[in-house]
Amino acid sequence: MNIKFRLTLMSFMQFFVWGAWLITIANYWFGTKQWDGAQFGLIFATMGFASLFMPTITGIIADKWINAEKLYAILHILYACTLIYIPQVETPNAFFWTIFLAMCFYMPTISLSNSISYSTLKSNNLDLVKDFPPIRVWGTIGFIAAMWMTNLTESKASANQFYIAGIGALALGIYAFSLPKCPPSNSLEEKSTLMQKFGLDAFKLFANYKMALFFVFSMFLGGALQLTNAYGDVFLDEFKLLPVYAESFVIKYSTIIMSISQVSETLFILAIPFFLKRFGIKKVMVIAMLAWVFRFGLFAYGDPSGNLWMIILSCVVYGMAFDFFNISGSLFVETSTTPKTRSSAQGLFMMMTNGFGAVLGSVISGWMIQKYFTESYTNIQALAAHVNATSTDKHLLNFLSEKGISVLENGNLSRALDVKDWHNIWLAFTIYALIITVLFMIFFKHKHTKAQEKAIEAITH
Q1: Structural contact between residues 227 and 436, judged by C-beta atoms closer than 8 angstroms
Q2: Where are the alpha helices (DSSP H) in 249-378?
Q3: Would 194 be classed as within a structural domain?
């Protein structure tokens, strides 16, 4: 079988087994389980916690003791077992630890899949620059395909999303044992310290004011990514609480609508060379930050009817917000560090965005939304007045039934229903992104170095 096809299949499944539940887990948490919103932020923080140490640990293991493809296979099988067990979990605390365990198995496989692709392409005398990007883009397609499958099988609020991901991960784990061998390189120096092995020596880069500033802003912007991953789909789904939107296409296919973000991501990658050459690294970073402002702001004013175009445009803007900062930021790190510290610096960049940034964004947003933007309703009349409906409206009663809530004879609900103020939630996030953008423009002073001009020139040709 063609080696590039085999790596493409691996890349597709790598992100399929993540996309099947990542965007829709909020529907399961808030809708099916009706658990506390403040604790939900911790669920998305598990990715950040796991990213802080697991990729490094598994990297050391793959470098020293076990073939990368075998370790990759084992991790995916363990990930699959954990996902399949998730529907049995009945408490928020147990759910957190189960998801955290799943993330400890999954997050290292992202870097391992890259390592396997690089190693295999090199051993087959193929061009990394030319052949790897088309392979990697199929990962995003896999993510989109999983979102569509979860939505079209009506699994976005049920345990089935974990079964879809779990079965896929089990298949990928078994398949990975057949991948070309990637033996340990024994590349770690015997005399390297524990800090060097874990990449912690990269924190020395904080002694450089510009690098420190860049990493701090990377952390704050990393938090923004988690906000739409965590709440985007449930935001669209909860429009069905409002009778005027209850039968909207957007509500029924909210996950498919959200997948426009991933489609946009693949397309904006192609536009990066043009923007880098025309505007330079700092301005591209600023464009990315402004895109986050529009991402949140358009959500704040969008709805499934007259302002549907805002929701669609918000998803399109996401591609620019995500791609432009990650790639321009990576290029800044690559051209601002020495060869000796470059790998550690790139690792630190990822740690600040996907590690500390993810934890910060997830935990604080969960607490903030529950404390300031959530109201509990215990009476059908009060709830009906809030959503501009009658207490006997069939859409409202159907919504309550989906949540497992019944209406008592006195008009009270069998249990409280938490309703989020999504308009002001997204406005708060908009202000957050705008403040970061303005501060970055003021404090981050940067002019192109010759190395950066050379790197941009290489990208655009």
Answers
A1: no
A2: 249-252, 254-258, 260-301, 308-336, 339-350, 358-372
A3: no
Instruction: Report whether 85 contacts 206 (CB < 8 A).
Output: no
Residues 14 and 58 in one domain: yes
pLDDT of residue 188: 46
Query: Quick one: tokens of 216?
Result: 């701090």
Rg of the chain, C-alpha, whole Å: 23
- CA pair distance 205, 207, nearest whole angstrom: 5
Q: Are residues 364 and 395 in the same domain?
A: no
DSSP letter for 244, please. Answer: G
Residues 368 and 380 in one domain: no
Last residue of a domain, one of 153, 183, 213: 183
Does the residue 196 lie in any domain?
A: no
- Tokens standing for residue 205: 């880069």
Residue 1 has a pLDDT of 58
pLDDT band at 121 (very low <50, low <70, confident <90, very high): confident
Q: For the segment 40-74, what is each residue's pLDDT rounded down to a tens digit? A: 888 988 988 888 888 778 877 877 788 889 999 99
Residues in the chain, total: 461
- What one-letter code names the amino acid at 412? N
Query: CA 313 to CA 264: how far, in whole Å?
Result: 10
Is residue 146 located within the same domain as residue 161?
yes
> The domain spanning residue 158 has which CATH number?
1.20.1250.20
Assess whether 153 and 229 both reside in one domain.
no
Over the chain, what is the mean pLDDT? 87
* Residue range(s) defining the domain that contains residue 253: 205-373+421-461
Q: Which residues pair with 1 in a beta bridge?
A: none
398 and 437 inside one domain: no
Side-chain-side CA neighbours of 84 within 13 Å: the count stands at 11
Distances (CA, A) of 56 to 1, 47, 91, 196: 32, 14, 31, 11
Q: For residue 281, tell me if it sits in a domain.
A: yes
Global confidence as pTM: 0.84
Which of 141-145's residues contact partners 24+ apart within 8 Å by CB, and which partners? 141/12, 141/266, 142/11, 142/12, 142/13, 142/14, 142/15, 142/16, 142/19, 143/15, 143/16, 143/18, 143/19, 143/262, 144/19, 144/259, 144/262, 144/263, 145/12, 145/16, 145/19
HSE (CB half, 13 Å, CA atoms) of 193? 6
Region class of 405: left (phi > 0), else alpha (psi between -120 and 50), else beta:
beta
The answer on 356 and 308 residing in a single domain is yes
